[in-house]
Amino acid sequence: MIGQGTAGRLQQARWPRRPGAAAAAGTPRCRAAPRCRAAHPQPLRPWPSQLRCASSLAAASTAEAGAAATAEAQQEEEGAGDAPAKTEQRKRVLSGVQPTGKLHLGNYMGAIKNWVPLQDDYDTFFCVVDLHAITVQHDPKDLRAATRNMAAAYLAAGIDPDKASIFVQSHVGAHSELSWLLECTTPMGWLQRMIQFKEKARKQGEDVRAGLLTYPVLMAADILLYGADLVPVGEDQKQHLELTRDIAERVNHLYGGKAWKKRGGRGGRVLKVPEPFIPPAGARIMSLQDGTAKMSKSAENDASRINLTDDAAAIASKIKR
């Protein structure tokens, strides 16, 4: 029921009258709806049926609210003390090996050996980086076979497909797409300062390819594409990972943050900046022929490395030399 104060204000309102009507005659009407009685000489009261309906709705709403509150309280009491704790999202690890030559002791000690325990504690992605292998002269048929053999070597070393993701780099087109986008952001001077580029360019002379210069950008795309938190790298690859971090921070500065958001961009952090994971031992296994160079699959002299497929006699012969 409407209160007496509200009814009194409605009765005292100055409602417009129809032209020609006597001041004391008739009932004031609403201008917007002439047939709707907007004011009454008596206090406004709803019909008894409306009162019963409103009372029923109010009672039902009150009962439902009370039942919901009681059920919620019971759930809180039952779930108190045994609510599952929020699980932290596991960090992501990415690494890969080129399918060039045979896997040797340096690959195993510096990379693959450390991958096996990582797959139990992290979300791991292990890639056969075949696109990196075409920066030098190669035979496509041999490269395809070497790619399959490298994937098989991952499995033989203990990488479990049920725990880790194993894939071939060239099978995911986004690697090349992101690499091009990052190349358009990376200053040329950053790439020319890479030590490995200087060494290989000096050996290859005029035959050095542009892919060798932009190799670190493709490596950065491999890492940043999956939002990796940690990257297992050898000591010789640490500079490349530092470049990856620089590229990620540059992209975040140019295309993230509040300034870019004002121009319609997404703002915030665009790329995750990864951290290096360098094993305490075996990060850099040296060549058996040259103590100043690391053991390499691409070295012409097979006696400079211990391949994982070498038998005991071959290993003994290489060490005796």
From TrEMBL:
Keyword vocabulary terms for this entry: Aminoacyl-tRNA synthetase, ATP-binding, Ligase, Nucleotide-binding, Protein biosynthesis
Chain intervals with Low complexity compositional bias: 18-30
Enzyme class: ligase
Stored Pfam families: tRNA-synt_1b
GO-annotated cellular components: chloroplast; mitochondrion
Gene Ontology terms, MF aspect: ATP binding; tryptophan-tRNA ligase activity
Domain of life of the organism encoding this protein: Eukaryota
InterPro entries (alphabetical): aa-tRNA-synth_I_CS (IPR001412), aa-tRNA-synth_Ic (IPR002305), Rossmann-like_a/b/a_fold (IPR014729), Trp-tRNA-ligase (IPR002306), Trp-tRNA_synthetase (IPR050203)
Biological processes per GO annotation: post-embryonic development; reproductive structure development; tryptophanyl-tRNA aminoacylation
Region (Disordered): 1-30, 65-95
EC numbers on record: 6.1.1.2
Key word Nucleotide-binding present: yes
Family: Belongs to the class-I aminoacyl-tRNA synthetase family.
UniProt-recorded name of the protein: tryptophan--tRNA ligase
UniProt source species: Raphidocelis subcapitata
